[in-house]
Amino acid sequence: MMLLMSSPALALTRDDGDDPGPGLSVIQTLGLYVLIPLALFAVIAGLVMVLDKSRAKGKTTSSNITVKSDAQANKA
Fold first, then answer.
1. Rg of the Cα trace of the chain?
2. Structure confidence at residue 44 (pLDDT)
3. Transmembrane region positions (predicted)?
4. pLDDT tens digits, residue range 25-71?
5. Residue of 56, 39, 37 whose CA lies nearest to 47
6. What's the rounded Cα separation, in Å, for the pair 49 and 46?
């Protein structure tokens, strides 16, 4: 019975207190849902790259490894 009462035709009637605002244009929709998130992503990624301190340490672990060249294999 509830399934019959929830038909799409009932969506046309407004609820009490329902006061929808004006719709968004295509430019406003693209700006709100595409451009603003892309700009926020770019700002956050830029801040992470600029403030990254791990590059300052660099490759210290691979540059201070010494290899002994006088090692000889045991002949049995």
1. 32
2. 97
3. 27-51
4. 999 999 999 999 999 999 999 999 999 877 666 555 666 666 676 65
5. 39
6. 5
Structure tokens at 5: 């009462």
DSSP characters over 61-75:
HHHS----TT--PPP
- pTM for the full predicted model: 0.52
CA quadruple 26, 29, 33, 38: dihedral sign? positive
In one-letter notation, the amino acid at residue 18 is D
Q: Could you count the other beta carbons within 10 Å of the beta carbon of residue 31? A: 13
Residues whose CB falls within 8 Å of the CB of residue 32, separated by 6 or more in sequence, listed in order: 24
Contact 32, 24 (CB under 8 A): yes
Rounded Cα–Cα distance for residues 2 and 50 (Å): 57
Distance CA 28, CA 72 (A): 74
